[in-house]
Amino acid sequence: MAQKSIASCDCPRHADCVNSTHCTCKHGYTSMHGEEFFTFPLATCKDTDECKPPISIYCGANAACQNTDGGFYCHCNPGYKLLSGAPQFQNSSENTCQKATSSATTKAMNDMSTSPALEPSQLQRVVETFESLLANKTLLGTGEKEKVASWATGVLQTLETDALDTALKSPEQKIQKIHNSTVAIETRVVTDNCSEEQIFSLNTHMNSVDIHCNDVVQGNIQGPTAIALISYSSLGNIINATFFEESNEKDRVYLNSEVVSAAIGPQRNKSLSKSVILSFQHVK
């Protein structure tokens, strides 16, 4: 018997309607079969555990990730506290966990087993490097389009290179993923021959790329090859402010998707034999 499609905008809990024809799970949730868009009326959206692989949010030294329904937060390990005194924070860039020195805290440390700090993965270190570049407000404050464009290009190229290098250094990890409030990265390593019509699909922040395996393998190159897809949550705001602020209010222009880039390595600047499909999620 054929499956009945979902009626217009009759989506399950934790899902939104798309174009009055399909449903998609909200951020922090995944459909029961893993599809980005679905029409099956009995489909459900389950919580995504951002604290476990393949995402494994890194909260920084002396801290741990805590999953919640539809989200997550970071907190300092027992015996440590944020300089602000707040009970939680969002990502490693906000981590100021310091060893507590009060007598009450010292007693608590003696009574509790301190959780070991999570060792950052190489991909997590790549993200931290990007965040440090983003935190440099000196150049962005000038508002000069040419300088900001050059800076943004350099950031994209640096992150692409670092993501590919990280993937190729650990070819046994076929797929690596990480995301936080500023950037999302997915990498895939290919170590075997491709089937004739094999397509790889990578997804970050509801953006995706579909590419033929042969274009990732790059002919007869020796050793593993990799592809990286990167979505930048924060670069769009910088570009909007710098490039579009002079537009007339009548003809208001804005960037309606995240900035997204994809790269193949170790060889770069190679022509592709088949079409590559990039899909972008609208911001508004």
UniProtKB/TrEMBL annotation:
Molecular function via GO: calcium ion binding; G protein-coupled receptor activity
Residue span(s) of domain EGF-like: 47-86
Chief subcellular location: membrane
Keyword Mitochondrion carried by entry: no
Domain GAIN-B span(s) in chain numbering: 174-284
UniProt-annotated location(s): Cell membrane
GO cellular component, one term: plasma membrane
Protein name (record): EGF-like module-containing mucin-like hormone receptor-like 3
